[in-house]
Amino acid sequence: MRMKSIIETVASEMNTVLSQVREEEALLFSQKLQSAKRIFVTGEGRSGLMGKAFAMRMMHGGFNVYVIGETITPSIEADDLLIAISGSGSTGAIYQFASKAKEAGADVLLVTTNKESKIGSISDGTLVIPAATKYRRPEEPETIQPLGNQFDQAVHLVLDAIIIGTLESSKDQPSFAEMTKRHANLE
Ligand SMILES: O=C([C@H](O)CO)[C@H](O)[C@H](O)COP(=O)(O)O
């Protein structure tokens, strides 16, 4: 089995995708995180899993953050921020959530490969991850990986990097010990 070469190709694909993420979009994303009253995160399937990982680390960082679909998630309001993660930018449920969030007066930021997508067209900003999705549009990069792996992996790494940058620039930057203390102790 050629496992080593697969691992190296996945790492190389990530390097290519990550190097094309625009710094100004990442900075805007970070500013929006800092100015939002509360942060809500949504995404279907693996995009949603990346969203949950992001929300957890934001909670450790001291942010007021919720995941859409959880029973304790409250209603969204003006001054709140919805982070929608959708590789295609066209998933129906995420479009509905983004529309309703806009109606409630919240800001919507889309993490996607496609700025011109349906969800992109109603969002207040986009963070473009120029990766392959399950739709294999002609403009998407080559990949050896199935469906939207390349997008999901890149989202995870880019959002983790944005959290680090956001916490570093915060005047109340939490220590490693403070972040660890917030981690669930019933596990
Ligand atoms: O779970 C997914 C699929 O496995 C592709 O990797 C997607 O994240 C899910 O289908 C949602 O699609 P997008 O909204 O286009 O991210």
From TrEMBL:
<dbReference type="Pfam" id="PF01380">
    <property type="entry name" value="SIS"/>
</dbReference>
<dbReference type="GO" id="GO:0097367">
    <property type="term" value="F:carbohydrate derivative binding"/>
</dbReference>
<dbReference type="InterPro" id="IPR001347">
    <property type="entry name" value="SIS_dom"/>
</dbReference>
<dbReference type="GO" id="GO:1901135">
    <property type="term" value="P:carbohydrate derivative metabolic process"/>
</dbReference>
<feature type="domain" description="SIS">
    <location>
        <begin position="29"/>
        <end position="172"/>
    </location>
</feature>
<dbReference type="GO" id="GO:0016853">
    <property type="term" value="F:isomerase activity"/>
</dbReference>
<dbReference type="InterPro" id="IPR046348">
    <property type="entry name" value="SIS_dom_sf"/>
</dbReference>
<keyword id="KW-0413">Isomerase</keyword>
<protein>
    <submittedName>
        <fullName>6-phospho-3-hexuloisomerase</fullName>
    </submittedName>
</protein>
<dbReference type="InterPro" id="IPR017552">
    <property type="entry name" value="PHI/rmpB"/>
</dbReference>
<comment type="similarity">
    <text>Belongs to the SIS family. PHI subfamily.</text>
</comment>
